[in-house]
Amino acid sequence: MADAVPSSGLALTGPVTLDTLDQVRALLDRAESTTRVDLSSVTALDTAGAWALLDHRGMHIEAASPAQDLLLRTVEAALPPARTARPRKARHRAGDALAAVGTTVEGFLTTSAQGLGFTGLVMARLTTTLVRPRRLRLTALVHHMQEVGLNAVPIVALMGFLIGVVLAFQGAAQLRQFGAEVFVVDLIAVSILRELGILLTAIIVAGRSASAFTAAIGSMKMREEIDAMRVLGLDPIELLVLPRLLALVILLPVLGLVADLAGLFGGGLMAWIELGISPSQFQTQLLANVGATQALVGLSKAPVFAVIIALVGCHQGFLVKGDAESLGMRTSRAVVIAIFLVIVVDALFSVFFAFWGV
Amino acid sequence: MDAEAVIEIRGLTNRFGTTVVHEDLSLDVMRGEVLGVVGASGSGKSVLLRSIVGLQTPSAGQITMLGTDVLGASAADRAAASARTGVMFQDGALFSALTVRENVEAPMRERLAVDAPTRAALADLRISMVGLPPEAGDLYPAELSGGMRKRAGLARALSLDPEILFLDEPTAGLDPIGASAFDALLNSLGEALGLTVFLVTHDLDTLQATCDRIAVLAQRRVLVTGTMAEMREVDDPWVQSYFHGPRAHAALGQEAV
């Protein structure tokens, strides 16, 4: 694409563009002795080509067409001032791992403090709203109740049913060894009503709704809708957080109950098929050995889980910054934090109830 | 300006449900010209731009860009044609997770085997050509002002030395000084790089300062094309009010009648 004519300088031919850049630069490098480059046979010149020519300091450019000359002058005028060495990325050092631990701990503490502050803010707004219930956005509340509650019924019911089936199946295998098949009813009822029903419901809702809250509020934040609300004198907490919080607090116990019933149904069905425990036997055993207390203990945790899920989801939404990556990061973080906190609080409940002797 | 058409649009129809945006629209863009496309809000300027660059599949019609039939060509041919074009979206549409330099490097990274230091140097050159300070290269889009974002978007659009540059409202939201600077930048770059520019705008100052030819989109087609002076003679109520309004007079440096 080019040939060197040492006597009259370097004569380039063909295109001198981005696509031929490395060949052109190689030619320029090889032609160290010449200080002139002839463009008369160059068919195409683009900014990258012009840059390559100019980058070779001291090279005198000859026979450029008027258009090429204009391009060369434009590129020359725009050449970044004296190429300063760009700061390289810092090398890894021994203390880095330790520093990373510190940063993580600090981030954890800051997030916790912010979360606590956010909780306080929401509680203050909630109190105001409870004193003046007219301020509550009823339409939004009903909308979110449908979104987080009604639409979650199928998945929660299916999950409960399958858990019941699994418990009955596994329990039967163990209890049959002792000839204590009938106690499978107690096993199913206590574990589902007390723990699994509401815990797994909360985990599903955390995955479903906490992420939805973060994504919705986060994208509003990115499009400055939250700022618009603030300047219009509308309170984003009142408008966005309270309806979601209340919808979850109202409906998570209901979803827990759905999971409980579906679990008992699945467990009963499996006990009937696998162990021959008839539905009426199941009912008798259930009523005799497992009181309503078990169900109430389980469902009493629901509002607390609801508050955790809603607050974490909304708070992470408010923490979203301008870029798309932070939206994704916050959404996944919302789910992880919500599930983690739900499990921790569930453990605390267990300790509490054991202490109380319920 | 020679008479070679780099974009030919014939019988373009765009329909969204029952809404017809374009019907039997035809338009030629000549090599080396700056064509300004104006029209009322909702007249389908952006849809036209999106149709040409292949983001919107029209209901009917034919679009030829740089000799490639945009709608009928294979994916590879279309990619080759779009490698010779650059698009600057309304708000820059910079990748928010990348720095400005990485944004400008992105098209080069996708298409060419250029080594990293050269790529960075070429990106720095583009950044400097659009009038951004050198240190802007290390900033993220969220840290830039609106005008800087537009310049960065232009730098990315210029990254592959396109033959055709599509600009969607390049001066919208800029202050008058920034907008004039952008017009001047467009003129000097257009001349130096031999660009063909397809410019969608509302800005009469930009039209006056940069455009060789203006196409008016109305009644679902290109109502009329011509120079600024010719526009003022067109006998159509919308064109009349557009090019004879107080803003038009201000842009043309004339006293309002």
Can you summarize this structure?
With 358 residues, chain A is an alpha/beta fold.
Structural features, described:
Chain A is an alpha/beta fold and 358 residues long. Chain A has 2 domains: 2-78, 2-Layer Sandwich (Transcription Regulator spoIIAA), CATH 3.30.750.24; 103-356, no CATH class. Helix content of chain A is 72%, strand content 7%. Chain A has helices at residues 21-30, 47-55, 66-78, 96-131, 138-149, 153-175, 184-222, 225-231, 236-275, 279-289, 292-300, 302-318, 324-356; strands at 2-5, 9-16, 36-45, 60-62. In chain A, strands 1-2-3-4 form a 4-stranded mixed sheet. In chain A, strand 2, helix 1 and strand 3 form a beta-alpha-beta unit. In chain A, helix 7 (184-222) runs parallel beside helix 12. Chain B is α/β, with parallel strands linked by helices. Chain B has 2 domains: 33-54 and 163-252, Rossmann fold, CATH 3.40.50; 94-162, no CATH class. Chain B is built from 10 helices and 10 strands. Chain B has helices at residues 45-53, 75-82, 100-111, 116-129, 146-157, 176-193, 204-210, 228-231, 237-244, 246-251, and strands at residues 5-16, 19-30, 34-39, 60-65, 68-69, 85-88, 164-168, 196-200, 213-218, 221-226. Chain B has a 6-stranded mixed sheet with strand order 6-7-8-3-9-10. In chain B, strand 7, helix 6 and strand 8 (196-200) form a beta-alpha-beta unit. The longest helix of chain B is centred in the last third of the chain and has 18 residues, at 176-193. Chain B is globular and about 55 Å long. The relative contact order of chain B is 0.16. The A-B interface holds A 17-19, 21-22, 46-48, 51, 55, 67, 70-71, 73-75, 78-81, 83, 86, 321-325 and B 96-97, 108, 112, 114-115, 118, 120-122, 124-129, 134, 140-142, 158, 160-161, 188-189, 191-194.
